[in-house]
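queue> pop job 88
queue> type: inverse folding (structure -> sequence)
queue> payload:
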């Protein structure tokens, strides 16, 4: 799998390959500017697929910034933001058909999408969820499921497409990996709902959890949300040993980082979630990355490969450990 059509050895690059390389160079800066956790985890991807995951993240982040504050800060109205998001989606689909866009982030994503088989069945739910953020009314349970699918689960499925393009697996394994990718994406999103509670509720007027008033979040409500998150993390952990070697270390690390966040949210009083964003110190992140690197080196199919406790915090491997109640 290549990032773009390559010129024969010894010949100069074509205009398209030069443009594609420059487009990716621009897209690659976005993940490291916006996310230390994902940025660190992607460094553990194989060099062949790392640029493509960076391309996926870049498009997702650009769309997210349209609805999450940057566009509003620039003076765009909600209608302006919706128009801009619609144009970005149209440009993305056009580029996925043609292989070209004048927007370097869209172009780079489209090259990756065409190479790995990402289609509009994944991009359209994503843009639908982004559009939903421009109408900050309370979610029903069904609306929340659709939103989480489009805003997070499809991102996991896009990345899985990239992982498996060079490492195909039998259909039964692929189906398990798709289910795991969705559960991991859902866990990441729900964790970020709790981490971003102050901004989402106080500044953007968003309330993602049906039947819960963010301003009056109780310890019992928070615990129920964390238990749900840890169930998703546990289900995702079960399939990590089946991932190909090109991504296993990175996914193990990302899982470990967000498991640590889940534990820290559990230990944080519910009232404090409205005043500060929970984070993981750099030294802890580095330790998690080191454990992920060691654990992912265990061959698939060995008895040790399934020992999730060696990969991530034990609390993530055993969601029921959180049922006893919040720690103080």
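queue> result:
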């Amino acid at each position: 799998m290549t990032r773009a059509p390559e010129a024969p050895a010894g010949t100069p690059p074509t205009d398209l390959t030069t443009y594609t390389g420059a487009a990716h160079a621009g897209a690659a800066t976005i993940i490291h500017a916006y996310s230390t956790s994902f940025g660190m985890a992607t460094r553990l991807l194989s060099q062949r697929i790392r640029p493509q995951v960076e391309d996926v993240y870049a498009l997702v982040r650009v769309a997210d910034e349209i609805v999450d504050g940057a566009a509003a800060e620039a003076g765009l109205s909600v209608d302006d933001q919706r128009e801009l998001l619609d144009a970005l989606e149209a440009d993305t689909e056009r580029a996925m058909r043609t292989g070209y866009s004048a927007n370097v982030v869209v172009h780079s994503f489209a090259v990756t999408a065409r190479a790995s088989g990402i289609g509009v069945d994944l991009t359209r739910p994503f843009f639908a969820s982004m559009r939903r953020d421009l109408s900050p009314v309370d979610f029903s349970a069904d609306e929340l499921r659709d939103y989480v699918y489009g805003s997070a689960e499809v991102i996991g499925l896009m990345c899985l497409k990239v992982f498996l393009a060079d490492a195909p697996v039998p259909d039964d394994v692929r189906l398990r990996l798709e289910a795991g990718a969705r559960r991991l994406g859902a866990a990441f999103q729900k964790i970020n709902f709790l981490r971003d509670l102050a901004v989402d509720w106080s500044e953007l007027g968003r309330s993602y959890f049906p039947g819960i008033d963010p301003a009056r979040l109780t310890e019992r409500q928070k615990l129920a949300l964390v238990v749900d998150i840890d169930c998703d993390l546990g289900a995702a952990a079960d399939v990590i040993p089946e991932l190909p070697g090109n991504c296993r270390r990175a996914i193990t690390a990302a899982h470990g980082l967000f498991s640590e966040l889940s534990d820290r949210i559990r230990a944080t009083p519910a009232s404090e979630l409205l005043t500060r964003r929970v984070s993981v110190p750099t030294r802890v992140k580095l330790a998690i990355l080191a454990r992920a690197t060691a654990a992912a080196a265990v061959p698939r199919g060995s008895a040790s490969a399934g020992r999730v406790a060696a990969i991530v915090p034990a609390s993530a491997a055993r969601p029921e450990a959180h049922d006893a109640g919040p720690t103080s």
